[in-house]
Amino acid sequence: DAIKHIPSILSNNTNLQELNLSGNNLQFSHIASALHNTKTLVHLDISNTHVTNEGIIELESVLSNSKMLKVLNLKEMNLQPTHIVMMTEALEVVSSLTVLNISNNNVGDGDSANSVANLLSHNTQLQEVYLSSTNLQFEGAAKITNVLKTISTLKVFDISNNKLDDEAAECIANVIMNTKLEKLYLGGNDVVNVTITTKLREVTTLKALDISSNNISDEAMKDVPIILSKNAKLQDLSISGIQFTDYMELFNAIPIRIRCLNISNSPLPNKGLCALTASLCNFAELESVCLQNTKLQPAYIIMLADALQHLSNLRVFNISSNDISYCTPIHCTNAYKNIASILYHNIYLQEVYLCGVNLHAASITVIANALRNVTLTVLDISNNNISDEAACSIGGVISKSKLQKLYVSKASLQTKGALTVARALKGTSTLRVLDVSKNSKFSDEVANEFAAVLSHNTRLQQVYLGGNNLETESVTALMDALHNTSDLNLLDISVSNISDEAVDSIVAVLSRNFKLQELYLNQTELQTKDAITIAEALKSITSLKVLNISSNPIDYKAASHIASVLSSNPQLQHVNLSHLNLQAIGAIKVFKGLKSTEFLTTLNVSFNNITYDTSMATDSMASVIKHNVGLRRLYLGGNVLKESCVVTISRALINISVLTVFDISNSLIDRQAADRIAAVLSKSTKLKELYLSQTNLQTDGAVIVAKALRGNTTLTVIDFSNNKIDDKAADDIANVLLQSTALEEFYINGNNLHALGASKLTRALRTGTLTTLDISKNYIGDEASNDIKSVLTQSVLQKLYLGNNNLRNALGAIWVELDVSTLREFDISENNIDNNAAVNIETILTRNTTLQKLHLNGNNLQAPGAIAIARGLQNNSTLTVFNISQNLISDEAASDIADVLSHNTELEELYLDKNNLHAEGAKVILKALLKTVTLKILDISHNKIGVEAASYIAEVLSVNTKLQTVCLCNNDLQTDGAIEIAAALQKSLDLKVLDLSCNNIGIKAANHIAAVLSKSYKLQQLYLGGNNLESESTIILTSALPKVTSLTVFDYCNLRNDLNEKATSNIASILSKNTALQEIYLAKVKATSSIMRALQNINTLTVFSVVSITISCRDIAMIVSKNPKLQEVSIIDCALRAENVINILKKLKNVSSLAALNLSHNNIGHEAAATLSSVIWFNPELSKLSLGENNLDSESIGTITKNLQNISTLTVFDISYNNIVEDIAINIAAVLSVNTKMQELYLGGTNLRTKGLAKIKEALKDTTSLVVLDISENCFDNKAVENITAILSRNTKLRKLYITGNNLSAASIKAIGNALEVCSSMTVLAVANNNLSNEEMQSFAEYCKSYHPHLNTAYLKDDPCQDVTKSLHHYLQLHFQD
Q1: Which of 176, 558, 604, 641 could bridge 576 with an S-S bond, Cβ 3.0-4.6 Å?
Q2: In b/e form, how buried is each residue of 694-716, taking b as 16+ CB within 10 angstroms?
Q3: What residue spans of 70-201 are helical by DSSP H?
Q4: Are 494 and 467 in contact (CB under 8 A)?
């Protein structure tokens, strides 16, 4: 309403000389016409207002009439180059300017820079020129400074935060030399070198100097103390982000009249800290001191406080990011008291920054008391642990202040604390910035309180609400509260749940805030249609610099709308579109939208399914990269870019030298691509983060990359994981580690490192900065354990991953004395830790009471080991992730595990699958979980819980309404149990994964499950296979899914009933709506043509599995050809013949990411062997190959195994029940000898005989990882027992052994039983159809049960099926028992 009166005021005052409309909620076009008759303007300030194209024309008219203008402030108006040209042309009549401010606009290097230079040349009396953040580079800076060097009246020159480097130094030096500067701002460039410092040594008039965040050479650094000593009137000094060599000389040179001192982001050595505290004693007029991130320790904080005791005029105090969390309790207490003392004596304080200084309840109370007489305008207490009690103390400070900026992000605010802060703000109407992001989940009550705060603060500019898991209703309330706010330049509502109603409210906010610069909508469950709606609202905004809509179920259909937003915002600097489903077609549109952008510093399009064969998308991307030479962070991971695409991108990057983050993981890198990447890395000497995970680098590529990194000393993150790197690359990688003295995270997991290589790498990790180390999934063994231990003693590790390394003994006695108190995440999974080693782990865990994530899965703990682990965790109440799955802990350990869960009530993820839990044990654990309401993932699948415990599961589900993943597979829940569970899941609207497979669920449960599915709009993975669901059930269930469009996994592999055409049609309809599907599992489906048509529109599949369906070979071939990222293909019992399989296999040659191939029960014969062998050749990462019952002869097996000998990654190998002769055993043995991590081996019915088994035994001498072994129906004699027992003795993790039908005597079977005593996890031992009488079998069963309490004795006596050699049922029993 007030804006309406401004034009009439202006039109009535035609002699107006000074007009200041800065920062108002108006468009200049509204008032420009009222100024047409005003020709006397001397001072015009319209900074931070919104100007449309129409307004620019109006403003041009006003300026052309203002011939007497002296001061012009156009800062932060989102002016583009064309606007700048229009403004400066209108100002040609002006020659009296003394102040010109066009900071925070887009000037650039072209015609607009020329026009600015021309304007300056007409105004020779200029005193102040502000060009900060105007996207100037060398050419533009040269044009402007060439004019400014002739203006001798210049006193203030601000050219900070541009993209200037050494090339521009001479131009700026000329300005310094020819003027009498009083204030010079050069921060945020890389321009300060000896050329500039030499000229500055001649200046004695400086009052303000900013050279922060410049890459200053040692030679130029020596000039800085001389410059300071010659400028006695210096009052404002900013040297942040610079590491000086002689701090004593520097601080002694600072004039004693200094008022503002900023040395943040400069880690000070001990001598530097001593010099600083000594100098501070002399600075009597100090008003602002910024020491953020200077590595202050408690002792130095005490010294600092003593040095500042004489001050009482401080206005700004900043010691953020000086972590003192690892100090003694005495020092910490004293340090906080001394901080409080500083605050208490400075009652004029306006801004206090205490972010990330490890504040706790007691220290916050002390500090809050010290601030009780202070009226703050800025308070930052983010990244601290603020309890409810501490929130009350802070609330007292807030309620007494006139805050403009409040930061309480990452402060662990719970509901009560959040309510306290919100209510303390109710009387405040002066807020410009409110940051309450990344706390715990905000309830509707908390959201409503903060909504009241927002509604009272209509001048808000930045609102951070992200990371609080806001529900739709809360988002709507908060956005509606912003209905009178139109000054927003930043809005963050990330990690929330946004649906249609909330989208409308967001659009309303966007439509009113034309000056928006940053928008964060990542992880908000935005659907494609919602993204399109928001993009349409954003088209009227042209000021965006940051756009983040990552990790949402948005597909390529929204790409053109997103591209339109990008093209409308040429000043974009940060664009994050990762984890969408843009695909190649969408990526091309997005990159075209970015073609006019030249100021990108961050581009993230990772995980967008930009398929590896799409060169057009890569070319478009390369074009964007070339035009953005200031690009610092580039994320392309997860797109499976092929080698030629990597080369194209690397060529585009060759002229960029400022790269700090480079992520090209999950791409394919050959020798040529590695060379190109190396060329980029050798020029990127400031690189901080490098991600090359899963790029097929192998050893040679790793060596090339490591050598290119020799000149880099700034790396903080290195990721070489999953690349087949062996010990030969260790020396070169170790050299990189030795020089990376700031390294924080190192990932070398999933490679082929052995003890020697691991030792070399860990010896090189002698930096004290390391916080994360992942060396899991290698072949390290106990030998390297001392070197790993040494890393732990020298680093403050927070995350340590050692899983799957056979470190059984290393995790024992030698680590017991280790201090692991800093660990937050600990992974020792799959290391065969038995009961004895568990006692040592218990000791380690006892020393860490703040562990948050613990992974113990896949070990051999059993009940005694689990009880020991529980004892080690008895003092821990901070667990958020607890994984003890696959340990057969049984009901015996249930009460101990329940005790752990009862005092870890903030648990978010719990994994208890495959633990042989029965109903009673499950009940005990589930009762303990009733105290927890924070669960997001619950996995208790593959146990023996039964319908009896279903009600207990339902209770847990009903109190944990934010569950995202529920896995209850294979628990014999039956129909009644499924009904109870479905009823409890009605409130779980966040479900993303639901696994009810293999539970014998029938039609009566269908309606209840359908009711859950109808509300689960976010569902991504649905597993209903292995149940008794026929056509009618299928129709009911699939009819509940029409609104679900985000499915990535669909498992409906139900083998008991054939599905009719209606059911099939419904499945096809679901598939057609879920175009981002990644995994599909189907069985016994009729009329498959509709399903195949739906699947042909999907190109994101990684798993394609069909069992017992009649399917067209042409359809399968088409699906394979359209899904180049396939990792698993299973076509079982589909009546394929050789010619059909050959056509499919030819298409599979184009897939190089295949990890699993299953063609069992298809009778493909020997004709397809050669083609199959070539597929194996093209897929060196193959880990599972199943070819059982396919009528393959010995020649076929010979052809196939020839290429398999070049693969060392096999974990599953099945050639059972084929027509093989004994002599082919030597070929099979050759495969087994190079695949020493074999887990499942199926050689049943292969006519091995005793002689062939001897070769197999010898080939398996280095294999200790077998879990399943099937050597049934092989015509062994009793002499084979020695070979069988030798295999068993080395494979102590064995769970299933099938030796049926081998004519073995009772003595031989007993010898095998003796050998199995070391295999404490046995669940299946099938010995039927051997030479045992009923009495001998009964005696053997009793003997086995004494050693193997989890054994299913039914398999001892009965053959799994009547016709072992020709039964699909037998095959499924073997492969899908779990």
Answers
A1: 604
A2: bbbbbbebbbbbbebbeebebbb
A3: 81-90, 111-122, 138-148, 169-178, 194-200
A4: yes
Provide the residue type at 1116 as one letter: I
Distances in whole angstroms, Cα of residue 776 to Cα of each of 705, 729, 745, 815, 1126: 22, 17, 14, 17, 25
- The answer to whether 1189 and 1371 are in contact (CB under 8 A) is yes
Q: Summarize pLDDT for 13-45 with one digit per residue, the tens.
A: 889 999 998 877 666 666 777 888 888 999 999
**Contact of 1370 with 934, CB cutoff 8 Å:** no
Listed in sequence order, the residues at least 6 apart from 1264 whose beta carbon sits closer than 8 Å to its beta carbon are 806, 1290, 1291, 1292, 1293
- In this structure, are residues 570 and 83 in contact, taking their beta carbons and an 8 Å threshold? no
pLDDT of residue 130: 97
The residue type at 1021: Q
Which tokens is 908 given? 């978010």
- The Cα-based distances of 666 to 607, 621, 1104 in angstroms read 9, 17, 20
Alpha-carbon distance of 670 to 772, in angstroms, equals: 28
pLDDT tens digits, residue range 208-253? 999 998 878 788 889 999 999 999 999 999 999 888 888 889 999 9
Name the token pair of 359: 């504040």
Contacts by residues 1335-1342 (CB-CB < 8 Å, ≥ 24 positions apart): 1336/1306, 1336/1309, 1340/1306, 1340/1309, 1340/1310, 1340/1313
Which three-class secondary structure state does DSSP give residue 206? coil
Give the C-alpha distances (Å, rounded to integers) separating 1133 from 847, 976, 1018, 1105, 1137. 54, 32, 34, 11, 11
According to DSSP, residue 189 is labeled: S
Q: Compute the distance between CA of residue 953 and CA of residue 925 in angstroms, rounded to an integer.
A: 10
Query: At residue 1145, what is the residue type?
Result: L
Distance CA 1237, CA 1209 (A): 7
For 1314, the token pair is: 């003796």
Judge whether 664 and 684 are in contact, CB under 8 Å.
no
875: its two tokens: 């003092």
Which band of pLDDT confidence, cut at 50, 70 and 90, is reported for residue 596?
confident
Q: Any idea what DSSP says for residue 483?
A: T
State how far the Cα of 505 lies from the Cα of 482, in Å rounded to an integer: 9
Confidence band for 330, pLDDT divided at 50, 70 and 90: very low
The torsion angles phi and psi of 1320, rounded to 5 degrees, stand at -80, 0
Read out DSSP for 1262-1322? T----SEEE--SS---GGGHHHHHHHHHH-TT--EEE--SS--BHHHHHHHHHHGGG-TT-
SS3 of residue 317 by DSSP: strand
Share of the chain above pLDDT 90, in %: 57
* CA trace torsion 1028, 1030, 1033, 1038 (10° rounding): 110
Dihedral sign, Cα of residue 291, residue 295, residue 299, residue 300? negative
Q: Where are the beta strands (DSSP E) in 866-969?
A: 881-883, 909-911, 937-939, 965-967
**Beta-bridge mates of residue 1103:** 1079, 1128
Mean pLDDT along residues 48-67: 82
Length of the chain: 1378
Mean pLDDT of 1067-1096: 86
Q: Which residues contact 1029 (CB under 8 A, 6 or more apart)?
A: 1001, 1002, 1003, 1006, 1037, 1052, 1054, 1057
What six digits make up the tokens of 1060? 């009719």
For residue 986, what are its two tokens?
């009605």
**What integer is the mean pLDDT of 1193-1216?**
92
**Cβ contacts of 609 within 8 Å, gap of 6 or more:** 581, 582, 583, 584, 639, 1076, 1099, 1100, 1125
Residue 553 DSSP SS3: coil
CB of 195 within 8 A of CB of 217? no
Instruction: Quote the longest CA-to-CA distance of the chain.
Output: 118
Cα–Cα dist 1084/1028, whole Å? 12
